[in-house]
Amino acid sequence: MYVIIVGGGKVGYYLTRTLVAEGHEVTLLEKDARRFTALREELGEAITRGDGCEVRTMQEKGMSRADCVVAVTGDDEDNLVVCQMAKHKFGVARTIARVNNPRNEEIFALLGVDHTLSGTRIIYSLIQQEVEVGEMVLLSALKAGKIELISAELMADSPVAGKPLKDIRMPGGTVIAALIREEEVLLPSGDLRLREGDTVIALAHPEEEPALRAALLGAAHKGAIINATKEADKR
Amino acid sequence: MRVVILGCGRVGSLLAGMFDRAGHEVVIIDKNADAFWRLDPTYGGEKITGMGMDEEILRRAGLDRAEAFIAVTNGDNTNVMAGQIAQRRFGVPRVIVRLYDPIRAQTYRKFNLETICTSLIGAGVIHDLLMKKPQKKIEEYLEMGEGVKEVFPGLEDKTAPPPKAGPERQ
Fold it and tell me: How far apart are the two ends of chain B, measured CA to CA in Å?
């Protein structure tokens, strides 16, 4: 696979190393001369000095044959433009952008970036998961918010606690994707019995949230879903 | 009309003064409060300090009821991102974005962003002055950007721009 990474910060550097070690062809673009020199010795041919937003650089590095373009600079506007130019000018199939301001995730999806990741939001959702026992937490909104990845920790009064998965009727188009039981990730199978303390990871459309809540946590739990994305913004 | 201007540099401050004197409702945004010294002392519009591609700042600037949004910071990418947010998120009817890079200007025109590439205009005007050619219309100078295809062969657009879908406005 040929991957072009824009931005030689810590994320770009470690990503380059990881992909090169796995045998992939990688070009890391870094525009800052000092940062470039610092990384050159270790990364050798894999790093090029250049502005990843400049079409000339993109063309020289063969962006049109790249399988994936990853923009991980510290500036969201640069990451957006790299992905949009890669897609529109060079027809790159997959574009991934780091989003520094978690609020921009939705905007990037709206503007055609295939995948976004926000360190702030991931960490925040992990914190939320620890704090809000017995509640549902929105982990990630996929496909511009059309599908949600939701986590819910089962309490003793959960209507599904003690039941095997095959006996649980999930509402509408919701799906149990995985189960976390004491640090262990269990994949769903019909005979797997849910227990108090299990964390259920489910996929649902946003409008199915209330039905999912009732199914997993019981009617007593009426609170709104905790949106890790929006909660993070308040800070 | 309500005009929101992003970037209080030379162009932004001039524009703010022009619209303000003409009696329009003007809001100017800059990430650096010191930039506002450039404004005409008689400027009576609003000033907001903050990052212009931050949706929250744009909301505070009343973008949801603005008739026009102009992005003239010195960062092409900032202008492009803020312009797209104004268009797609806030449904601003008229969005004009100033860019230095002719290729980005040409690309984003296809995204329905009205881009003005001052590099193309400047170079074109100077060229015609020197060569004693009559001055052209702005559109003609901007179309010189199409010439970049000759410089970069094989640079045809590969995918269609994302569909334009702004929020409904009353």
Answer: 15
Rounded to the nearest angstrom, the minimum Cα separation between A197 and chain B is: 38
Indicate the pLDDT class of residue A230, thresholds 50, 70 and 90. Answer: very low
Q: Is residue B88 part of a domain?
A: yes
DSSP 8-state class, residue A165: G
- Specify whether the CB–CB gap between A152 and A213 falls below 8 A: yes
pLDDT of amino acid A233: 47
pLDDT in tens, A32-61: 999 999 999 999 999 999 999 998 899 999
Q: Is B157 within the bounds of a domain?
A: no
CB contact under 8 A, A87 and B158: yes
Low-confidence ranges of chain B (pLDDT < 70): 145-168, 170
The tally of domains found in chain B comes to: 1
Domains of chain A and any CATH numbers: 2-117 (3.40.50.720), 122-234 (3.30.70.1450)
Closest CA to B40 of B53, B52, B51, B26: B26
CA distance A54 to chain B (A): 9
pLDDT, residue B156, reads 63
User: Which residues have C-beta within 8 Å of that of residue B88, sequence separation ≥ 6?
Assistant: A107, A110, A111, B164, B165, B166
Check CB contact under 8 Å for A88 and B158.
yes
**Nearest beta carbon to residue A111 from set B88, B152, B154:** B88
